[in-house]
Amino acid sequence: MLRPLLLVTLLACGFTARAQYQANWNSIDSRPVPTWFQDAKFGIFIHWGVFSVPAWGPTKSAVYEQYAEWYWWRLLDPKAATYKEFNDFHNRTYGKDFKYQDFVKGFTCEMFEPADWATMLEQSGARYVVLTSKHHEGFTLWPSAQSWNWNAVDVGPHRDLAGDLTQAVKAKGLHMGFYYSLYEWFNPLYKSDVNKYVDDHMIPQMKDLVTRYKPDVVWTDGEWDHPSETWKSTSFLAWLYNESPVKETVVVNDRWGKETRSKHGGIYTTEYDLVHDQTSVGKKIEHPWEECRGIGGSFGYNRNEQLADYSTSEKLVHILIDKVARGGNLLLNIGPTADGRIPVIMQQRLADMGAWLRVNGEAIYGTRSWDKAPAVTADTKVYYTRKGNDLYVICTTFPEQSLTIKGVSKNAKVSLLGYSGKVAQGASGSDLKITPPSLNPATNPCPYAWVFKVANAL
After folding, report:
1. Is the pTM of this model over 0.85?
2. Comparing C-alpha atoms, which of 343, 300, 255, 292 is closest to residue 129?
3. CB neighbours of 291 closer than 8 A, spacing ≥ 6?
4. Cα distance between residue 319 and residue 332, in whole Å
5. Which pairing describes strands 128-134 and 278-279: parallel, antiparallel, or unpaired?
6. Contact partners, residue 125, CB within 8 Å, separation at least 6
7. DSSP characters over 90-107
């Protein structure tokens, strides 16, 4: 017990006891998602590893079957729908006797320039970055003692890729985080004794990653084989929230056991608009959430993809708008090459998103969904976000007729972001009427979507 004098002194100095989180879901789920994440809205996912060497997947299959980062598994799983396609490609390209582990010799990363990557990511308008520290293949991008001779320092590039990128990204003022796969397809310890794997391999490895690099995001995956109790997820999260160097700022997702998605953890995660194979399009998710997806149909770089397989810059901007208007974030993936380059088409898409956000970011960053907005459908062309007393009306097609916003203050003032001219407005009862200006190439502020700011609307 504190002595009275000591207690008074502590209180006078502003000391308050910090709540300790317990290793159960009721306690863990009570922790609020840090505000920085809900304000950031746009992040960049990076899938990079030994799978970046073969860099191949089919492009005409279901979404999950296109993932190039699943190359090793598809080669060895006869039940996989694309087993034959992967084996046909592998055998004719590398030969039947070429083992997946041999690809590490080609993971050279000699053109990886972390400062250049960080500049590119900053200019995309993203506010955070999530790098695959370890995918399901078990290969780590940092010198993990638990992955001896199967990490980027011991073999391949002989370089701490995670550390180098972390330093460069944080120097740009961006939040840095890591994806981490709980399971490993072919780890002998995992296959023989999952409890020993968790205690001696997974938990120490995750704690090393956190204490070494102090990430703002811990984004887990590969949880589906076992319940969270087997993974000892709540014990790890209690350590993360109570004792780790990032206990105040770290954001986690919901992939901590086969029962936890959209139920437990931190943010909820959809993938290519899928939630447990159910579309999330149009749904408003009240809990903080994030959609992750590639620019093409794969997360890892896929040399088999053609131009038609990549989303246009316009589509990507519209996807970002849709997620943010429904209260979520977008984590857009890029897949670097094995020699350390970000493919030019991906650079171009990121540059276009950054250009749009430099004009219209006010309607994205720090906003929340508008509770009075009409429901989003597949045909929605007008979206809404709000910040303080201001409302943002985001049009994915420039309106040819006037817009009527129901229940908006008559004292509101309308402007078009990036446009210096005046925007005509009027009132119809308790509704606001916006008359779009006539734009020409010299006055058009952007090519993909247009934002009317309605100041003092709420």
Report:
1. yes
2. 292
3. 269, 270, 271, 273, 280, 319, 323, 328, 329, 330, 331
4. 10
5. unpaired
6. 42, 353, 354, 356, 357, 358, 361
7. HHHHT-TT--GGGGGGG-
Q: Which of 11-15, 158-162, 195-199 has the lowest mean pLDDT?
A: 11-15
Q: What is the DSSP string of 111-134?
A: T--HHHHHHHHHHTT-SEEEEEEE
Structure tokens, 262: 């959209």
Q: What are residue 269's DSSP bridge partners?
A: 290
Averaged confidence pLDDT in the chain: 94
3-class DSSP assignment, residue 215? coil
Beta bridge partners of 383: 394
Domains of the chain: residue spans and CATH: 25-363 (3.20.20.80), 370-455 (2.60.40.1180)
Nearest to 289 by CA among 241, 234, 240, 326: 326
Residue appearing with tokens 């420039």 = 398
Backbone angles phi, psi at 101, to 5 degrees: -60, -25
DSSP per residue over 146-164, as a string? Answer: GGTTSBTTTSTT-S-HHHH
- Residue whose C-alpha is closest to residue 68's, from 256, 247, 300: 300
Write down the residue that tokens 């708008």 correspond to: 321
Return d(Cα 187, Cα 192) in angstroms, integer. Answer: 9
The model's pLDDT over 228-281, given as tens digits with 9 standing for 90+, comes to 999 999 999 999 999 999 999 999 999 999 999 999 999 999 999 876 666 777
The separation between the first and the last C-alpha atoms of the chain, rounded to the nearest angstrom, is: 50
Q: Across the strands, what pairs with 393?
A: 384, 452
Q: What is the DSSP string of 291-357?
A: EEEESSS-SS--TT--GGGSPPHHHHHHHHHHHHHTTEEEEEEE---TTS---HHHHHHHHHHHHHH
